[in-house]
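[Amino acid chain]
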Amino acid sequence: MKTTALLSLTLLLGFAALPAGGAEPLTLKQAIATALQKNPAVRAASAAEAQAAARLIEARSNYFPKVNYLEQFQQPTPAVF
């Protein structure tokens, strides 16, 4: 009984590992790259990292002095009586 179950499991896993439709099997590096590109949790973590970096730049900008310059010119109009 154990032998039959083990043989069935081995065959099932063996056929499941075969590429479907004659496609090339993935290498480990390709499988990892595909998983990282398509995993929504990885995308969310990457977006959170970019957001944190932007907040850090914004927070550090408060340490630098601010310079404001305003120039106005107004030509007086002649008085009309």
In short: The chain has a mean pLDDT of 80. DSSP finds three helices and no strands in the chain.
